[in-house]
Design a protein that fits this description.
Helix content: 10-25%
Number of domains: 1
CATH architecture: 3-Layer(aba) Sandwich
Number of helices: 3
Oligomer: single chain
Distance between the termini: 27 Å
Strand content: 35-45%
Number of strands: 10
CATH class: Alpha Beta
Radius of gyration: 16 Å
Amino acid sequence: MKIKRVHEYELDDVARGSIQELLSESFGDDYPKERVYFKQLPHLRYLVLNDDNMLVAQVGLDYRVMNLNGHPVNVLGVIDLCVKKGYRSNGLGSLLLSEIEKFSEDKSIDFLLLFADHKGLYLKNGYRSVMNECTWLKIDNENHQSIGVGKEVMSELMMKEIGNVKWEDGCLDLLGYLY
């Protein structure tokens, strides 16, 4: 297995096709067809390739400032981590999370943040569930349009502190779209 870190704008059509197939396999009908993103393109990705150079796992990363209780925090969002069916339960998800942590060392990143329906992998890797009231830009998937602002407590929200800033309960304004 080899892991590649690639900026989104560097992906060719073959890589995009492989990512789209993996996302469809992993997330099913909930994922927009013919796309390699749910709401917005990530800034970069980690791709795991097997010995035959086939994509078997991937994760997107989105770097931005968010507002936590009136204070700016630097967040690296973990988006759409998924592993091909025949390769699951072999540690590839944990490997990707470990690569993200190594990448984040000595950088201006306070928190890793994600939304997960199935939390086991993330809990096992040191993430914790938080129950902040979130504000975000709502996007219409089909028409690629902003449709308003959402505000609610998101039970799927998870984070990992990696900088010197401590996470606080309260309000989290994503200052953009919901991953």
